[in-house]
Amino acid sequence: MSRLKEIVMPSSESSMAEAQILLTGLGFGESPRWHEGRLWFSNWGMQEVVAVDLEGNSQVMVRVPTTLPFCIDWQQDGRLLVVSGRESLLLRQEPNGQLVTHADLRGLSNEGWNEIVVDGRDNVYVNGGPGIIALVAPDGSARQVADGIAFPNGMAVTHDNSTFIIAESHGRRLTAFDITADGSLSNRRVWADVDGHPDGICIDADQAVWYADVPNKRCVRVREGGEVLQTINVDRGCFACMLGGDDRKTLFIVAAEWHGFAKMMDGLGTGQVLTAQAPAPGVGWP
Questions:
Q1: Residues contacting residue 9 through CB under 8 Å, at least 6 positions apart
Q2: Domain containing 258: what range?
Q3: Which helix (H) or strand (E) holds 23?
């Protein structure tokens, strides 16, 4: 992993946006999270969770006993959660650093699990399998709260814990639900149809959503209804994005060369973390 201050110029439609490379030499960055003054992310293909500061200094924080997918978030008490996707387990890091089983998702699906988000009330949402979303309660019990998601990917929750948004990559849309008092999801609706394949997402204070798009090699900022507000184009697939930094106005993008699932490992080592200035700070979860 090395730092490189090269500028990646966007297209003319990108509203004066430009991105800088912060970190190189990764596998496939996924599940970026701004946590305790650094960007943390899953480094797929390397079986590790990495943290990097704004100067590009990186550190391996956790080594995970799974391949991919594995995604991360934190409980409100500060304990790290890791999705062990192929094993259909949700792991929790104990104070001694050991990863233990927090929830067993095999009773809901053994087809593999993907993304995770923890809201401000400690509801833990995990998606994957045959297009489903699971809710893991604080006691570790799990139940299905939605299905029929067309390739579920990034998830986010608004700052008031009232609205849940998920990227449906194959559906080419962002879908919203209301969050009920017990964490269930209701009132499913299309939040925005998009011209692309949304992957990782985050929300900003203007109630807009940034989504990463692997095949189109870009991150796009949209408002509810689908109006495109900003586009940042780069030279490789964008897997996820996160707003962070001291003012939460730095957009972090994890990107890598993508040659399709059959040749996925051809992109190993091309992973990067990029940064760009955003017009509004991040809010909500993650």
A1: 18
A2: 10-283
A3: strand 19-26
pLDDT score for 265 = 67
Does residue 1 belong to any structural domain of this protein? no
The count of domains in the chain is 1
- Report yes or no on 2 lying in a domain: no
| Of 183, 185, 184, 188, the residue nearest 171 (C-alpha) | 188
**Residue in this structure with the two tokens 């439609």, named with its chain if needed:** 13
State how far the Cα of 242 lies from the Cα of 262, in Å rounded to an integer: 27
Q: How far apart are CA 154 and CA 54, in angstroms?
A: 23
Cα–Cα dist 237/203, whole Å: 20
Q: Which of 35, 29, 20 is nearest to 200 (CA)?
A: 29
43: in domain: yes
Identify the CA nearest to 101 among candidates 86, 84, 117: 84
What residues in the chain have per-residue pLDDT under 50?
1-16
Contact 102, 94 (CB under 8 A): no
Residue 91 placed within a domain: yes
Spatial neighbors of 175 by CB under 8 A, at least 6 apart, are 149, 165, 166, 168, 188, 189, 190, 191
| pLDDT for the residue 258 | 85
Closest CA to 191 of 176, 180, 177: 176
pTM above the 0.70 mark? yes
Q: Which of 21, 246, 282, 244 is nearest to 159 (CA)?
A: 282
Which CATH number covers residue 260?
A: 2.120.10.30
pLDDT score for 92: 96
